[in-house]
Design a protein that fits this description.
340 residues; mainly alpha; Na+/H+ antiporter like fold
Length: 340
């Protein structure tokens, strides 16, 4: 488990909200003055997926799936309560809240509804490691939970998304959804597992954890920001003419985060969890795997779609909200919120 002194954000993670805002303005600038650049990138396709963006999306997903540790799952029975609470939040509470808010705010906007569902049905497996370390939560629990989420998302993501879009009477290409899960989760998961085994055998676990994983993590953030620039550049004209689209998707996104965070705070309190376990359950149970949501939206609807824009806005709001949750958790702990 990381010591307190190690729970520090790098410059990319620390100012991720700033970088996302800069990519938005950069993309809008490119859309007005260099519109052919992003269009040319999007037109380099195989099977409907942009090759450059496909590479960026893979580089976004691969580092997140390096967190998978099968051996840690053996410890699940030692203290199952916080893990069970988190799974219920990820696969029951968040989807229900998502569908309710989509019905309330996004009726008639099918792609924005799908973007909300894609975010609400994807438990995070990457940035929660950073948030958990900053909050001084139980990182062993964090590793077990993210490893379990990585496995469950392989089997539950497509069925849950299909179910929720069906409830909203929105037709969705189930085949393309399954392909998206395989391409953007399955393949990186397999490569992540075998590359981790190979590298730790050749260079040692310490080199893998201290050198390799941080390096590919930085590459992932660069790939994410590159993808966002292209997203906003392709949607630039729509956003300039219809800025209400960002506001429309932002309202249920923000409300969803606040509702789920609030519910998880009180669930962990009444379940009798102590701070270090409770804060991890709240963080993982309240965050979304925006990388797979963005990748799936692009695969289903295209790079310049409303769905891709909606999932991007999920990232835009999640970063400051999760950072705020870290500090809120510390304040509540200081005031004895989780004390028995």
């Amino acid at each position: 488990m990381a010591e307190k002194g190690e729970a520090q954000l790098g410059i990319f993670e620390k100012y991720l909200a700033v970088w996302v805002a800069l990519t938005m303005f950069s993309g809008l600038f490119l859309s007005q003055y260099f519109p052919t650049l992003s269009i040319a990138m999007n037109n380099m396709q195989i099977g409907g997926i942009s090759i450059p963006i496909g590479i960026c999306l893979f580089l976004m997903m691969y580092p997140a799936l390096l967190n998978l540790q099968f051996e840690e799952l053996k410890k699940l029975l030692h203290n199952p309560k916080p893990i069970i609470i988190t799974l219920i939040s990820n696969w029951l509470l968040a989807p229900i809240v998502t569908v309710f808010l989509a019905s309330l705010f996004l009726r008639g906007y099918d792609q924005l509804t799908v973007s909300l569902i894609l975010l609400g049905s994807s438990p995070c497996t990457a940035m929660v490691m950073v948030w958990g370390a900053l909050a001084n939560g139980n990182q062993e629990q964090n590793i077990i939970n993210t490893s379990l989420n990585t496995i469950t998302i392989m089997f539950l993501y497509a069925p849950v998304v299909s179910l929720l879009t069906g409830i909203q009477n929105i037709p969705i290409d189930s085949g393309a959804l399954l392909v998206s899960v395989f391409v953007f989760i399955g393949i990186p998961l397999i490569l992540g597992y075998f590359s981790k085994r190979y590298i730790t055998r050749k260079k040692g676990e310490k080199w893998f954890l201290k050198v390799y994983r941080p390096a590919v993590g930085k590459i992932a953030i660069v790939a994410l920001l590159t993808t966002l620039i292209v997203l906003f550049s392709l949607n630039g004209n729509v956003l300039m003419q219809h800025p209400e689209e960002m506001i429309r998707i932002s309202i249920p996104l923000i409300l969803g985060f606040l509702i789920i965070v609030g519910l998880n705070l009180f669930i962990t309190k009444f379940a009798g969890l102590r701070y270090r376990e409770a804060i991890i359950s709240v963080i993982i149970g309240s965050s979304s795997h925006f990388e797979i949501a963005i990748a799936t939206a692009i695969s289903l609807y295209g790079l310049g779609s409303q769905a891709a824009l909606g999932t991007t806005m999920g990232l835009f709001w999640e970063v400051p909200i999760m950072l705020s949750l870290v500090y809120l958790g510390r304040i509540l702990d200081h005031k004895g919120f989780w004390s028995k």
